[in-house]
Amino acid sequence: MQPATRDLFEDIDWMLETGEAPHRIADRVGRNPEAIARLAARHGRTDIARTFQALYESIRRHATPARKKEPA
Fold first, then answer.
1. d(Cα 15, Cα 25) in Å, to the nearest integer?
2. Pairwise CA distance, residues 39 & 56, whole Å
3. Helix-then-strand count for the chain, H and E
4. How far apart (Å, rounded) are the C-alpha atoms in residues 38 and 53?
5. Which pTM value belongs to this model?
6. Could you tell me if 49 and 40 are in contact, meaning their C-beta atoms sit under 8 angstroms apart?
């Protein structure tokens, strides 16, 4: 694992432990929840991956579907 990735996980761990909401953590580290989940899963951090995958799925479920254009 690269030092930058290790530092990212340390920061995310610390923020989660101090009660920071996952969506705020994603904003603070400049990545979307899906990207954090995939990176964490690749590096065996299933605890972080589950947290951010759940957030990503929640966002997808509550997203407003795109409207179809009506014919003119």
1. 7
2. 13
3. 4, 0
4. 8
5. 0.79
6. yes
